[in-house]
Design brief:
β3 and β4 form a beta hairpin. The longest helix is centred in the first third of the chain and has 17 residues. The protein is elongated and about 50 Å long. It has a 4-stranded mixed beta sheet with strand order 2-1-3-4, covered by helices on one side. The chain is built from 7 helices and 4 strands; from the N terminus they run ααααβααβββα. The protein binds FE2/S2 (inorganic) cluster.
Length: about 160
């Protein structure tokens, strides 16, 4: 483990001890710090806290809010619920895959710029098809609008 990672974990653990936090709060702090929950961080924090690794993994795999892999700088969430599907979400999703290349079996582009997620229903069915780009809900999405949005994200690439 790199020294910088260790320092960040020690800081999280110190806060945890001061605030008498629980396993969920440690994981939230780890994710806030690293953008996801790295395996070696769980290993280290389990050792330091005496909380079994299995408890941490039980939480990480149960709650959808936790990510075990690094996510892209931009997150595009496409709704694939019934209403969105009927209104053309599959065409939007097809266009996304035409526009960006994802490594086989991966959700994030190789350069870490964009992560694509699919969800069952975003609870905004009246706006179907719905896509969320970096926490901003965009309703009545079309393949053309999607391409423009993706190109904007690609233009902002450092
Ligand atoms: S089905 Fe897409 S928002 Fe409900």
């Amino acid at each position: 483990m790199e020294q910088d990672t260790l320092v960040r974990l020690e800081s999280i653990y110190t806060r945890f001890k001061k605030q008498e936090g629980n396993a969920i709060s440690i994981l939230q702090d780890i994710q806030d710090e690293f953008g996801y929950v790295p395996e070696d961080a769980v290993c280290w924090i389990a050792e330091a806290s005496g909380i079994p690794e299995s408890k941490f993994y039980g939480i990480v795999t149960f709650y959808a809010q936790f990510y075990q892999e690094p996510r892209g700088k931009n997150v595009v969430t496409t709704c694939c619920g019934t209403v969105c599907h009927v209104k053309g979400a599959h065409r939007v999703l097809f266009q996304i895959h035409e526009e960006i290349t994802l490594p086989p079996g991966e959700d994030t582009t190789k350069d870490g710029l964009i992560t694509i997620e699919k969800v069952a229903c975003l609870g905004a069915c009246s706006l179907a098809p719905v896509v969320v780009i970096n926490d901003k809900v965009q309703g009545r999405m079309t393949p053309d609008k999607m391409v423009r949005q993706l190109r904007k994200l690609q233009e902002k690439k450092p």
